[in-house]
Amino acid sequence: MFEWLAQPEAWVTLITLTALEIVLGIDNIIFIAILVNKLPQNQRDKARFFGLSLAMLTRIALLASLFWIMKLTKPLFSIGNLGISGRDLILIVGGIFLLYKSVKEIYEQTQTHHQDTQSNFHGGFFSTLVQIAILDIVFSLDSVITAVGMANQLEIMIIAIILAVGVMMFASKGIAHFVDTHPTIKTLALAFLAMVGVVLILDGFKIHIPKAYIYVAMGFSLVVELLNIYIRKKTHS
Questions:
Q1: Transmembrane stretches, by residue range (predicted)?
Q2: What does the alpha-carbon distance between residue 140 and residue 25 come to, in Å, rounded to a whole number?
Q3: Contact present, 221 and 213 (Cβ < 8 Å)
Q4: Which of 208, 43, 197 is nearest to 134 (CA)?
Q5: pLDDT at 94
């Protein structure tokens, strides 16, 4: 079962796949950070832990259902000459949900007299987890398909996902705090998520936009905004 431990190429695959899983999980971390920061302070750490644990369990469950995953690529129905599969439906619905949530959050940020959106302790916490779980399924598809394409051993895929989620759990609190204390970064993050939502919808309709373009655009925008934050601090100091 663990014969691959003696194979150097298997370790290279594990390291590469773990790094890719972390990169593919960045949008998931941002989404979780924004949702969790709307909860009361004493619930945020628990929500982050459960949210990322859900992400890990979703990915492992999908990996364990490889036969089902492969069937998702078969067209269920057609719109004109375009065949729509189960995977496409998940991407379209997930993209619409992500786009709606992002635009709604941006709109709320523009309302100067917007009331506090924190829900009551019970409803807000579980409502947040449900929203995280929905997007985890969508974000997991790319992650799982990448894992299947890169590795042959199921153990390597599962270990890579566990390691990636471990890194994300370590980094998520810092990212959440940074996003929460810098409103412009939060708006930029929401704009990223809205863009990811549009990309998911297009992907569902077989219009593929390379993820590299998106990550480069995100990285460039983030660098510019970090420079703006630094300049504002220097100006007010």
A1: 12-37, 49-70, 76-100, 121-141, 156-176, 188-207, 213-231
A2: 9
A3: no
A4: 197
A5: 79
99: Cβ contacts below 8 Å, ≥ 6 apart: 194, 197, 198, 201
Per the CB < 8 A criterion, the answer to whether 34 and 155 are in contact is no
How many CA atoms lie within 13 Å of 100's alpha carbon, on the beta-carbon side? 8
Distance in angstroms (rounded) separating the CA atoms of residues 58 and 26: 16
Q: Counting Cβ atoms within 10 Å, is residue 77 exposed (0-12), middle (13-18) or buried (19+)?
A: exposed
The set of residues, in sequence order, having a beta carbon less than 8 Å from that of 61 and lying 6+ positions away, is none
Which residues have a Cβ under 8 Å from the Cβ of 21 and sit 6 or more positions away? 143, 146, 147, 160, 161, 163, 164, 165
CA distance 115 to 112: 9
> CA-to-CA distance for 171 and 169, rounded, in angstroms?
6
CA distances from residue 230 to 48, 117, 181, 233 in whole angstroms, order as listed: 28, 29, 14, 5
Report the chain's C-alpha Rg in angstroms.
Answer: 19
Question: Which residue has 């991407």 as its token pair?
Answer: 91
Could you give the C-alpha distances from 55 to 62, 110, 131, 232, in angstroms and in order? 11, 30, 12, 36
- Calculate mean pLDDT across residues 37-56: 82
The residue written with tokens 């220097």 in the block is 234
> pTM for the full model?
0.66
Q: Which pair of structure tokens corresponds to residue 33? A: 């950070």
Contact 102, 197 (CB under 8 A): yes
Distance CA 184, CA 189 (A): 9
